[in-house]
Amino acid sequence: MNSDDASKARWYEGVTPYMWLVLIIASLGWIFDVFEGQIFVASMKEAMPSLLPEGTSGGAVDFYSNIALGAYLVGGALGGVLFGMISDQIGRTRTMILTILVYSLFTCVTALAQNWWQMTLLRFLVATGTGGEWAVASAMVAEVFPQRARAWSLGIFHASSVLGTSLAALAGALVVGNPHLGWRWGFVLGALPALLTLWIRWRLREPQQWEQARDRAKADSAAKTGRILDLFARGLVRNTLVGLILATAGLATFWGVHIYGRELLRTIVERPYLAAAGVATSASPGEILAALPDVDKQTVKHWEMLGMFLVTAGGGLGLLAFGPISERVGRRGAFLLFQLGGLAVALVVFLGMSRASPTALCWVLPVFGFLTLGMHAGYAIYFPELFPTRLRGTGGGFCFNGGRFLAASILIVRGWMRSERGLGLSLEHTAAILSLLLLLGALVLLAAPETKGRELPP
């Protein structure tokens, strides 16, 4: 196919069955990766109060939940950088197997946690695997697919994460919220992804680009693979800092803004039940759970999981849309569209709809999810294009998971903003203020290189 024919062809024309297989397996690993992270989000209102002394205040429960979430982000940062480097050194396939085994094992073990610090430690260990899996899988998909199909395939890869969140929401409604099962069984489900490693070992081979980079490294010490300091060498340092800041802005607003969408729906639905039971909205989660009848608790939980599903469904469409949008307006233009759009819709939701009916909010949450999550597909598309093959896993892992590490501080800030000892702000005002971080992502685009239409650096 000549260049003119290639430019007119649909993105999927010429994609081989093996390429589709790579995309499917990488996406499954990412789906389960996200499930392992989101199952805690779907169950922390039940899990954390049960791991703390009875009568612990709501602020304290929120504080320890934020510590566990922060440990997850820090673990993801460490695992993403470590396994990204390992994948550049020993290969994508073997490293992907290691990451999936790590996050499957420790998620299952979390079902045995007896106190908050055990939960926190296990969240950290789970995250080392989940952080590493993304860096490895995104690099592999980028290296296997041709240039004209890269943005689409990586957009699909990252968008598959919504299935992981949807599975977590489903487990939250049917398992965590079931009084006959409970939150521990939700974590037991985390062992299932380990079976995927058998398929990976059987069917996947190393990308040709990685094999060529390995051979160059053997012949030239200056071309060694997986050296993290090389990310800050002349010619790469700007790309590294741009990627890191983009990821920090997106991940900080994910944990500080995006996940509050379903929380706002729960808050609105819960108010009349609390009023009928004579319980203040400021009561601790344990006090609220104890005061509400099982039927009311299940109703509230189902609304919360509906909110999680609606935000996730809209987010999934946003993730799918980022690829084709970035092919039309460029990587920088697509990031700018989602960052400014995400800021606008967040301000509308949290400042304009905090007293809206649950039904009205349900109509807006998919749009909210679309604009506040869609940019995350850009990390899978853009980061592999910023680094040469010998540093692709290292660079992508450092930027994406370095963003996770820096975003962990937002959990502390978020808890302080809402606590009585801090600013004492409402959920709505906290999320609205934190949404301003999207402006940081928009500003760094001034220094970002445009990579649309370029081949991957060798």
Structural summary, described in words:
This protein has 458 residues and is mainly α. It has one domain (17-199, 228-447): Up-down Bundle (Growth Hormone, Chain: A). It has 19 helices and no strands. It has helices at residues 3-8, 17-51, 58-90, 92-109, 116-144, 147-159, 161-176, 183-188, 196-203, 208-219, 237-258, 260-277, 285-291, 294-352, 358-373, 376-386, 392-418, 427-434, 438-444. Helix 11 runs parallel beside helix 17 (392-418). The mean pLDDT is 85.
Summarize the helices and strands and which ones pair or pack.
Elements: H1 3-8, H2 17-51, H3 58-90, H4 92-109, H5 116-144, H6 147-159, H7 161-176, H8 183-188, H9 196-203, H10 208-219, H11 237-258, H12 260-277, H13 285-291, H14 294-352, H15 358-373, H16 376-386, H17 392-418, H18 427-434, H19 438-444
Helix pairs in contact: 2-3, 2-4, 2-5, 2-6, 2-7, 2-9, 3-4, 3-5, 3-17, 4-5, 4-9, 5-16, 5-17, 6-14, 6-16, 7-14, 11-15, 11-16, 11-17, 11-18, 11-19, 12-14, 12-15, 14-15, 14-16, 14-18, 14-19, 16-17, 17-18
Q: In which range does the helix fraction lie? A: over 70%
CATH class: Mainly Alpha
How many discrete domains? Answer: 1
Q: Given the structure, what is the number of helices?
A: 19
The CATH topology assignment is: Growth Hormone, Chain: A
**CATH homology-level superfamily:** MFS general substrate transporter like domains
Q: Please outline the major beta sheet.
A: none
Shape: globular
